[in-house]
Amino acid sequence: MKKLALTLAALTMLATPAAAQVMCRDDVGRVTCYDIYGNSVVGTKDVLGKATWVDEYGNQVSVRRDVLGNRIIEDSDGNRTSVRRDVLGNTVVTDDRGNKSSCRVDLLGKARCK
Fold first, then answer.
1. Which of 15, 24, 45, 97 pairs as cysteine with 33 (C-beta 3.0–4.6 A)?
2. In terms of pTM, does the model score above 0.85?
3. Average pLDDT, stretch 34-53?
4. Beta bridge partners of 45
């Protein structure tokens, strides 16, 4: 659950608009975000655009973009996930084990995944 919250916070930094249940505060050179449950994460961004998020438990998530524009998300356990958009606008998520999921949002706002 903590890793899920950390990953969502990292994706919130890259997505607009931000999730309504996460509040962030800018400090000098870093961002501190809190969710409605009191969990906090601290995010920094280096000169190459790699964002690193660390929570109060020491879990770390790094988010960067590769040359094709895909988001590469890596956690402190070494798990790597790639997030990209296909030509139809679907969000395609692939992990380092080869598992793949494709999702889209229909006109009613409901996510459809396969």
1. 24
2. no
3. 89
4. 51
Q: Provide the pLDDT for residue 114.
A: 84
Q: Where are the domains of the chain?
A: 2-80
Contact in structure between 79 and 96 (CB atoms under 8 Å):
yes
Average pLDDT over every residue of 20-45: 87
Helix or strand run (H / E) with residue 75: strand 71-75
Q: Are 62 and 50 in contact (CB under 8 A)?
A: yes
